[in-house]
Amino acid sequence: MTTELQTERQGQTLVMTLSGPATRNALSPQVYAAGIETLNMAESSPDVRAVVLTGAGDHFCAGGDLQRLAHNRQHDMQVQGANLDAFHQWIEALRSFPKPVIAAVEGVAAGGGVSLALACDLIVASESARFVMAYNKVALSPDGGASWHLSRALGRGKALECLWLGEQQSAQQWQALGLVSRLAPAGMALDHALQLAEQLAQVAPQVLTSVKELVNDADRPLRAQLDAEKQQFLVNLSRPEAGQAIERFLRGKGR
For 63-82, how does the pLDDT look when each residue is reduced to its tens digit (9 = 90+)? Predict the structure, then answer.
């Protein structure tokens, strides 16, 4: 059965659930299209302050559907190329989405499932979660931006080791590497991700957007980053939310 993307509102948070437990929530073109459409709707809704991405059942996502990949090998590579383009469009949509996106990971995240989690802003993983860059096991190189995210986060050598060997790593190991933001007891990753989303909802939305844009582009030269920070700072300073927040802070310190 093909994995579906289910959505529901939990307060100010939109939860996107990869639902295909029989295949450990393996990815599909239908999911990519639904993911992009959902993010577009969430972006235009002021009632949605954050998005949480999770998997149904005991696992986050097993990555690509190998049966579909095997089938596509019998056809022109343009077919598989179109599928990859659709996946990568969803990855880009997650990265550029102006509101926080949190991955809630239970069980296994493998291959493209890891790429999907890495495309989110923050990862909340259960203590029993496991991450494996499984591409080498099927003689494939990574997709979904995994090489980009891991190189930025880990440096060249560690990223190569992770992608070449494809060794399974625990949530604790990924937290030590700075890839997992928070650990949760087994079965509680979604609850903890929702709590984190609620915390973020208390921050001014435009500040969340500004910070995400600045961090996304932080590999540019320092001078360019300083100019971007100046521009974002002045725009936010001119907003009424900043004046109200500064006034509240000063009143509180005066007590």
Answer: 977 777 777 677 777 777 88
